[in-house]
Design brief:
The complex is a heterodimer of chains A (189) and B (104). By secondary structure, chain A is mainly α. Helices cover 84% and strands 0% of the residues of chain A. By secondary structure, chain B is mostly helical. Chain B has two domains: 70 residues; 33 residues. Classes of the chains: A mainly alpha (189), B mainly alpha (104).
């Protein structure tokens, strides 16, 4: 029992520490949103967000990430087969989101509207590619965790990693809600 | 788990609602901007409460007993502090830059 309580304490400290990491990430992203808002008029003669970005694609990407964020936390129990299935579904949806957004970004670069075009586009690329980097690490995390759960089962260490993932992935969706609303929707008004 | 499903459903409605309001030009641009702002802030808070660790909506009863004594007050306190800092950063930056722009 004493051992169990000790374990319990470690888990709680890790989860709380991870929560603090997420909150510090919130501050980092809010700096990028502030920079975007300030640099929004700096188009250097180029076209703005309304003409540059496709709204239907953004809606599709938003729905993909929202559903993946939902499936990620859908585990009521910590049963191995169920956790593995849900991580696999989340991974597929997340990978689709990643490739769709990466495609958009590549398209912008190829059409001559890269990050070096204007201050506005620099801020846009900084924000979106920072999110994409987070998503890429989240996907890598899922792959590694699935292998670990497959090998070790749901032991203390894999449980802890899974609970952290369940915070990290919905957080990325929250950042994307900000991008979707403030860059895509507000840009099209 | 109920708040978890509810959070997902409301997020879906807010996402799609904001999309069609903008695409159909349902209101004047100023009203649309306010609408998108309100919808996004609502959805962000909703997801923090239902999907993340503010309301512990994403954690089931069994897990709660296994891994957490109770929803920690500190989770909420640190969250509110972070919101304050983020608001200072965003509003402060816009304010200062607009002011500099005005004086230039």
């Amino acid at each position: 029992m004493a051992h169990h309580n000790e374990q319990h304490e470690v888990e709680e400290k890790t989860l709380f520490g991870f929560w603090l990491f997420i909150l510090s990430d919130v501050i980092m992203f809010s700096v990028m949103f502030a920079a975007y808002a300030v640099l929004l008029p700096g188009k250097a003669g180029g076209i703005g967000a309304g003409e540059l970005l496709s709204l239907p694609r953004a809606l599709g990407e938003t729905l993909l990430l929202l559903v993946s964020s939902f499936t990620c936390g859908l585990c009521q129990c910590l049963r191995q087969s169920r956790v593995l299935t849900l991580i696999a579904i989340t991974f597929v949806l997340g990978a689709l989101f990643f490739s769709a957004v990466l495609g958009d970004v590549m398209h912008l670069v190829q059409s001559g509207n890269g990050w070096d075009r204007s201050a506005f586009l620099s801020a846009y690329f900084l924000l979106v590619s920072t999110l994409l980097a987070h998503v890429a690490f989240g996907l890598l995390w899922m792959l590694v965790l699935m292998a670990q759960i497959w090998k070790k089962g749901m032991v203390a260490s894999t449980q802890r990693r899974f609970l952290c993932l369940k915070m990290f992935w919905p957080f990325l969706n929250i950042v994307w809600v900000g991008i979707y609303s403030w860059i895509y929707l507000a840009g099209a008004i | 788990m109920k708040s978890y499903f509810l959070g997902f459903l409301l997020s879906l409605i807010l996402t799609i609602g904001a999309y069609f309001a903008v695409v159909e030009h349902a209101f004047s641009p100023a009203v649309l901007l306010v609408l998108v702002a309100i919808f996004s802030v609502a959805q962000i808070f909703l997801q923090f409460v239902c999907f993340l660790r503010l309301g512990l909506g994403a954690i089931s009863e069994g897990e709660k007993q296994q891994l957490l004594n109770e929803p920690s007050r500190w989770n909420v306190i640190f969250f509110l502090f972070t919101v304050l800092i983020a608001l200072v950063i965003v509003i402060g930056s816009l304010w200062i830059m607009a002011n500099l722009n005005y004086r230039m």
